[in-house]
């Protein structure tokens, strides 16, 4: 059965569009309006958060951007967008998928909302420590990209991480750094990037 992507062109769903270009696969794209179509009872059955993106593959419904991207990369593993299961780089790949979707997303959101005052005691129970910890870990990891996060292999993790950085730089929500600039320069060489940049320019 054909894949269906419920998304909105002004959302993080554009990250999946970028991955689909890299994969070179067909996927039906269903544009869902904010506030209305995303909140219908029918839509909430697919994603109780009433958010995009959502990928439907037959009977399987996947929400959460990171899960959608990881799922597609593995489903079409022959396209080489995820390290093989027995490749040690798979560990690095997982680290980036989870880092960008968990600690980094939370740290960046808290900062955007001004939730930055963290006591030493609170820091031990906050998954990302504090913003500086998360930022330092991020740029340290990026400084090891050669040229991509998993070495020579460009993966779905690069799509997620680079898209997040392009977005946050555009919105002034992350401080640039030589490691960030070098990494994004590497990623920008991908032929798919030009197409993504086009989607992205509409996305806010
Ligand atoms: N954790 C979710 C976040 C999804 C999300 O926040 N999507 C936004 C668009 S970027 C949305 O659909 N917002 C609509 C709403 O909350 O009403 C993911 O990674 O997929």
Automatic annotation (TrEMBL):
<protein>
    <recommendedName>
        <fullName>Glutathione S-transferase</fullName>
    </recommendedName>
</protein>
<dbReference type="Pfam" id="PF02798">
    <property type="entry name" value="GST_N"/>
</dbReference>
<dbReference type="InterPro" id="IPR036249">
    <property type="entry name" value="Thioredoxin-like_sf"/>
</dbReference>
<dbReference type="InterPro" id="IPR010987">
    <property type="entry name" value="Glutathione-S-Trfase_C-like"/>
</dbReference>
<feature type="domain" description="GST C-terminal">
    <location>
        <begin position="86"/>
        <end position="204"/>
    </location>
</feature>
<dbReference type="InterPro" id="IPR004046">
    <property type="entry name" value="GST_C"/>
</dbReference>
<dbReference type="InterPro" id="IPR040079">
    <property type="entry name" value="Glutathione_S-Trfase"/>
</dbReference>
<dbReference type="Pfam" id="PF00043">
    <property type="entry name" value="GST_C"/>
</dbReference>
<dbReference type="InterPro" id="IPR004045">
    <property type="entry name" value="Glutathione_S-Trfase_N"/>
</dbReference>
<comment type="similarity">
    <text>Belongs to the GST superfamily.</text>
</comment>
<feature type="domain" description="GST N-terminal">
    <location>
        <begin position="1"/>
        <end position="80"/>
    </location>
</feature>
<dbReference type="InterPro" id="IPR036282">
    <property type="entry name" value="Glutathione-S-Trfase_C_sf"/>
</dbReference>
């Amino acid at each position: 059965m054909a894949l269906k992507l419920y998304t909105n062109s002004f959302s993080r769903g554009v990250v999946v569009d970028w991955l689909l270009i890299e994969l070179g696969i067909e996927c039906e794209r269903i544009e869902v309006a904010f506030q209305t179509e995303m909140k219908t009872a029918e839509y909430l059955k697919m994603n109780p958060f009433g958010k995009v993106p959502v990928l439907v593959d037959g009977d399987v419904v996947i929400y959460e951007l990171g899960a959608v991207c990881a799922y597609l990369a593995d489903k079409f593993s022959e396209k080489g967008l995820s390290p093989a299961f027995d490749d040690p780089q798979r560990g690095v790949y997982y680290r980036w998928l989870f880092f960008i979707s968990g600690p980094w997303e939370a740290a960046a959101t808290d900062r955007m909302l001004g939730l930055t005052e963290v006591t030493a005691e609170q820091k031990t129970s906050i998954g990302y420590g504090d913003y500086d910890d998360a930022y330092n870990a991020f740029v340290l990891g990026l400084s090891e990209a050669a040229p991509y996060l998993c070495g020579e292999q460009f993966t779905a993790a690069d799509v997620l991480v680079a898209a997040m950085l392009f977005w946050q730089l555009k919105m002034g929500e992350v401080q640039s750094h030589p490691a960030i600039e070098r990494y994004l320069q590497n990623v920008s060489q991908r032929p798919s990037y030009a197409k993504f940049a086009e989607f992205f320019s509409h996305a806010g």
